[in-house]
Design goal:
Blueprint: E1 3-6, E2 13-16, H1 26-30, E3 56-58, E4 72-76, E5 109-112, E6 116-121, H2 135-155, E7 160-167, E8 179-185, H3 190-193, H4 205-216, E9 220-223, E10 227-230, E11 241-245, H5 257-277, E12 287-292, E13 307-312, H6 319-324, H7 333-341
Antiparallel strand pairs: 1-2, 1-5, 3-4, 4-6, 6-8, 7-8, 7-12, 9-10, 10-11, 11-13, 12-13
Helix pairs in contact: 2-5
Bound molecules: zinc ion (2 copies).
One zinc ion binds at residues 38, 41, 43-44, 126, 177.
Length: 348
């Protein structure tokens, strides 16, 4: 069973998950050539038997699960970092969300690593990056994010859901076929909990920040009817980019159907801009996409503003970053935004 551990000094938490070590790494086994080897890819259409049975899929009515014909498919992670826990459940109420009280004199705390770990297969096609998806495929991927997030909320067990995407070996992906992951946890991670503010300061920081950035313009990459794309003032990585809905929305699972297609276009174009700006990556840019959405606990709706973060993997965090927590970024967000704005006109 995996385990959450908490450090009383720093508040840092980790998940100890030894089962993860057994994961196969297609990138490592066969090098970059596997990008084309669909016969062994567990995420390609026709290879459904190579994954655990599906939890959800967009497929024609009447089409049986775990068969071809789907557009987006969600399966349990075969090598999960966390596990759903015992069906009997030690507590049905909210009590099991908290870490148990300190047991030893240095107050190390630990808890069973319960949670959900799902893989969302973005497309039946063997595609590497979001830029290789069509806009409708990207919209379907986002619709699946919304649906799985809503399902996790309904379970009424989880306090925080992280949806994320690792693209390319340098960004932590072990398989090249475009996919996303969802991890649901029974508590709010410390880095998110720190964002909590009580009255009288309990208004939305992000609403004010986006307004200010739209006025200043220098870090804005793109503005559409409902979304703002910008390089954050404190960018840790070259080309770090964020996508915000213009109106205040705390929960991605409650975002409207009507803006999903626009968001899909904006997200896909953002990736294309990055891939073009980083021309030496020749369309194989490694990056992470992170969906930040409100914790599934009361008290966040006024202060949390969902957004996507895109983090290009152009350099590894190294000794100084690990030692100090400060990132050294060789490209200012002002320069990055300028370069990205120049990006994709007349291109698709
Ligand atoms: Zn594939
Ligand atoms: Zn807001």
């Amino acid at each position: 069973m995996p385990e959450y551990r908490h450090d009383p000094l720093t508040g840092r938490m980790v998940i100890i998950a030894e089962e993860r070590a057994a994961r196969p790494h297609q990138f490592d086994i066969t090098g970059t050539d596997t990008a084309g080897n669909v016969s062994i890819c567990p995420f390609c259409e026709g290879n459904e038997s190579r994954t655990p049975g599906e939890l959800a899929a967009f497929r024609p009515a009447g089409s049986p699960p775990d068969t071809p014909g789907w557009t987006v498919r969600t399966v349990p992670n075969k090598y999960p970092a966390v596990l759903p826990g015992h069906p009997s459940g030690e507590a049905e109420s909210g009590s099991r969300q908290e870490m148990p009280p300190p047991a030893a004199d240095i107050s190390f705390r630990q808890a069973e690593g319960i949670g959900l770990h799902e893989v969302i297969i973005d497309t039946p096609r063997h595609v590497f990056s979001i830029s290789g998806l069509t806009v409708p495929e990207t919209a379907a991927m986002l619709a699946m994010y919304r649906q799985r997030l809503a399902a996790a909320r309904r379970a009424d067990t989880w306090a925080y859901v992280q949806i994320f995407k690792n693209v390319g070996a340098a960004a932590g992906a072990s398989l090249p076929h475009s996919h996303s992951q969802l991890i649901a946890m029974p508590f709010i991670p410390p880095s998110v909990n720190r964002l909590r503010r009580e009255p009288p300061d309990a208004s939305c920081f992000w609403c004010r920040m986006v307004q200010q950035e739209l006025k200043q313009k220098e870090r804005i990459v793109e503005e559409t009817e409902h979304f703002t794309v910008l390089c954050p003032f404190v960018s840790r990585f070259a080309g770090e980019t964020e996508i915000y809905p213009k109106s205040h929305e705390s929960a991605f699972d409650r975002t409207g159907e009507n803006t999903l297609a626009e968001l899909a276009e904006v997200l896909r174009r953002t990736i294309q801009r990055l891939e073009k700006a980083v021309f030496w990556m020749k369309g194989s840019l490694a990056y992470n996409v992170i969906l930040n959405t409100e914790p599934l606990r009361p008290g966040w709706t006024e202060i949390y503003h969902w957004h996507f973060s895109v983090l290009p993997s152009l350099a590894r965090a190294a000794g100084f970053e690990w030692g100090t927590g400060l990132h050294i970024n060789p490209v200012s967000p002002e320069q990055a935004a300028k370069r990205l704005r120049g990006g994709t006109e007349n291109e698709n």
